[in-house]
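Hi support team,

I submitted a single chain yesterday and got back a structure, but I'm not sure I'm reading the token output correctly. Could someone confirm the output below corresponds to the sequence I sent? I've pasted both exactly as they appear in my results page.

Thanks,
R.
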Amino acid sequence: MLSAKSQTVAAVVTGKAVAAVSVIHLTGPAAKEILGQIFSRGGSKSSSFEVGEILHGHIIDADRIIDDCLIGCEGDEQFGINCHGNPLIVEDILELLKSKGVQIIEPDELLMLLAQSKDDSDLISAEVEIAAIGTVTIVGAKIIKHQLKMGLRQTGRWWLENLESMDIDDVAAGAEKIIADSAIASLIINGAKAVLTGKPNSGKSTLFNRLCGRQKAIVTDIAGTTRDWLSAKIKLKTITVELFDTAGIEKSLVAANEVDAQSQQRAKELSCDCDIILNVIAPGETSVDRLCGSADKKILFVLNKSDLGKCKAAGSFEDTVSVSAKDGHGIDKLVSAIEVVLGVADYDFKATVCFTERQMKLMAKIAVARSKKEIRQFITELLTG
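Hi R., thanks for writing in. Yes, this is the structure output for that exact sequence:
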């Protein structure tokens, strides 16, 4: 069994896919010594690695530079290696650490070790440390940090202290509120996924380029130019969004040829796996096809090409915004509308939320538990693991 006091370990605490930055958390009694062997600042490997320092330099294997990186000195024996997100670079660094006697573990195992090393030995505080590193926005990091002082940990402890005098239904209602708030908080912490849908030539690709701030999609006057999906990550006011541009939805294209059929199918699949659908409508359209599987999705109807006149279908939907993707008119309103529909515009950033899958599963169990013995068991597990 791993020991927080005797074993030096490392884990990748960011996603395993290609990203701009990856973070490797290194902790244990030999962590500082090992960093002294593999980290170089301006040609010198000497460094004090004082708590709170952020050091810029290179990870070096013998005379070979593996990567330019930042070292965050988070504790006497805890360090964050911030390197480029190329998986090959991350793997090289992990192999170097292994050669120095470091055991490579999974993030969940690291959480348990960090929890064991704390004086108050509660798992939520360890989860806060790891999750705050990987959040995509500063606001998301603040939401996570709040759960340590006044949020989830305090709520769990208060429930334990007052459970005998509480009604089970009140605990369930509280748990359900936390679950609902957590769904919105997750969009701020992890980012949202939005899919542009609509008929061919409705201006989806022009809108995609406008929101991206540069041309990523090919745009022509020929309907059906986009036959595969494109994606880009964009920053709105509060959240980051992974935006997908899809092929135009048209029933006649399904039977046209195999390529168009697959493009239509992929557009439907993306619309079923997103947080919000931006259904783009051109002025000449009088009806809108809802995608299969999109009935339970949040939908914002974007009335595009406002420079050419009003959309005839404008009065048919609740959540609409008029834009001209071509000249940029209404884009700011669209950005605001996206955040309103997703529920993040008026979100209470001091709400009590769960921010890991482990926490969410236990909160779901608390919400349906029908005995105080079960509730106490689940809350204890939530706090201590």
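A quick pointer for reading it: The chain has three domains: 9-117, 129-189+354-384, 191-342. Let us know if anything else looks off.

Best,
Support desk
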